[in-house]
């Protein structure tokens, strides 16, 4: 008896572990481009010494070498070599429209100063979904002038990327559940200097069975989710809750009122929309029933042309409704954008106090996605330190208990508002400025130790 | 031979160490007040159970129980018990004038919120010389409702205090080289509530020979020196140098000039004085030949009635002379004090940007010593973080590279001054505003790692 138990135990030890059962398959034969097809522009793709080499040409759109086959859940690994400033990427779960126009998720190869290689860009659709401004530690994972190992995991709505073992993106998005894989050589427009710049890929292997068993994941990397009015497991675990349920008015009321406003707001198709004023309607701001001091608030908003709204926080209705405000505005068409002092009334600014500007490393461009598109506002408040983020780029940071904040308030239109911005906690308020603006996916977590 | 060397060695080991030779003497016999004499007011001093008990009375000035004997260099130890909010202290190297008015150094017993017990106050003369705002860690050394051990070291111009083993003050001052020791019960005015409040002292011992051999010293405690145009050894060791030699114009010149101004300034009696304008004189600001970025600047200034001056720093003459300014002003009489925004043009403010206010723990009172008195300005600049101190109390703090600083500048009169306050380094500039203001003891050290 004893001996047989012993042998069973030994036998278990020598069972091949699950990883041995992985069925990795190559999707590039190392010799020619069979199984691959060209889409979009006319950049050149060749096989040289076992690698696919993509070379830029002027005056042609972005060009994609795509798998004929489509993939849903998979783990893809490959290597990339880049020695010059050529933007490139690897599409996945992608598709085409209008005869060659590729769209869908792209794992970026981004040699620009911001160094967002490994971030996820939504080509031809929503733009940056996971910029590395949310994971700055991963910006140095990719190295120029050497082979870099990439890994993309796509499982259900979870999309993860890794470069040289460092997790870069952790995205949750449900726009596309399958599609082809495609290698991008980005358009270089008419920049002669970049003519002939090239990028190399090799050693493509893919796993498409039992994908969930092989998901890696760095617990320190932030997840970004675009699920509509729905929390991911990780968000729940991190203490997030929906501040609006997507359907009812629960948790919200009019300012200095027990009721939700009878007019001015509409709930439809998972959107909370403040309506443009009609002659006979009367608008009202709405506030949360709950109060928040240390918190992280995330919400998506969509402005119509020329619209004005805003997210106030630390709102104390008893004393005043004036409070710190994340400005929401169509900067191009609303006159308030040119008022205030040096742009401190523009989108994402701390209204009338601190002008918004990209603060994340290497970012210069305004991250606003445009009127009629969904944009993400994030407000983080912890022990006096407050940040405004727009589409995952940090735009404002200040310390509400500092001497400089007080000095700034005294210069602003809030001079004379005692204790402005310094209440321990307050409601969150959404502005009704009589312009149509929609909100959804309003999530909050408290940041108490 | 070998043996005799050995015994000499052993002999040295058993020599009594220097501490054994200390000649501590008692200055209170534990029974009566012989050797002590009362000065000033009529608070009561009695001997009870081996301790001297001082008890407050209303409507009498501060009262002092003083040694008949005078001491120059000494180390004094004693114990203090306080159980109520009665201000008290121990005078040393003190004297009297006008029949009972005691003046001189006082080791404070300070039960107020600021907790400056162990600090050194210059009674009847210059006020606070060593406030614990420069040594906040020592504010908790003294405890109410128990016996606390005090130690005062006076050696040459060095004056150190300790409470329960914690060094509180490290002062260098040369006003008085000897005087009596005196126990103070502070006046309580007409506050009936404090009538009968008491303070107890016991176990006085004094050492007055070979004092230098027994000086303790905590190397982490800042030294404050009031020597005129002269550096202490410790200041030299810490990298300080005189920015003005007290005699010549060396190191200084007129703005955008190679020469020191021919008019408007006077050097006399160790003071650098900007003169009030006469009809025929023309004033000019002066700047240092050297440039400073990370630095600690300490200087003493004296304003005349209604006077205006200032200390600019990070001055870039090529581009502009407008730069960050430590405002120097007679707030009471100069009209600029009420201009600007909420007092941001008052003494010690970051001119037109950040209003000065006491920031050190527990301090409420404006630390200005008055027109015609010497006051100390300190400016610390390190990696963007800048502080203004007035008479050793922190009054302003800001980060010149922060987004808030930029937002504040844009609201101020410096809006449009490109790169204001952000040059890596610049000259130090003293303002000639055509009002008489004197400077001395101008010291600087660079704070590079």
Structural account:
The structure is a homodimer of 449-residue chains. Chain A has 3 helices and 29 strands. The first copy, chain A, is mostly beta strands. The first copy, chain A, has 2 domains: 22-224, Sandwich (Jelly Rolls), CATH 2.60.120.560; 228-446, Exo-inulinase, domain 1 (Jelly Rolls, Sandwich), CATH 2.60.120. In chain A, the strands form 4 sheets. In chain A, strands 1, 3, 4, 6, 11, 12, 13, 15 and 16 form a 9-stranded mixed β-sheet that branches. In chain A, strands 17, 19, 20, 22, 25, 26, 27 and 29 form an 8-stranded antiparallel β-sheet that branches. A 7-stranded antiparallel β-sheet of chain A has the order 2-5-14-7-8-9-10, with no helix packed on it. In chain A, a hairpin with a 2-residue loop joins β19 and β20. Chain A is elongated and about 75 Å long. The termini of chain A are far apart. Residues 15-19 of chain A have low confidence and may be disordered.
Helix content of chain A: under 10%
Number of domains of chain A: 2
Structural class of chain A: mainly beta
Average pLDDT figure of chain A: 93
Assign the CATH topology of the largest domain in chain A. Jelly Rolls
By oligomeric state, this entry counts as: homodimer
Number of strands of chain A: 29
Main sheet properties of chain A:
9 strands, mixed
Biggest chain contact:
A-B, 22 and 22 residues
CATH-level-2 architecture of the largest domain in chain A: Sandwich
Over all CA atoms, what is the radius of gyration of chain A?
25 Å
Overall 3D form of chain A: elongated
Looking at this structure, what is the CATH superfamily of the largest domain in chain A?
Exo-inulinase, domain 1
Low-confidence segments of chain A, given as residue ranges, are 15-19
User: How many DSSP helices of chain A?
Assistant: 3
Q: Just give the CATH class of the largest domain in chain A.
A: Mainly Beta
Task: Tell me the strand percentage band of chain A.
Answer: 35-45%
**Whole-Å distance between the termini of chain A?**
55 Å
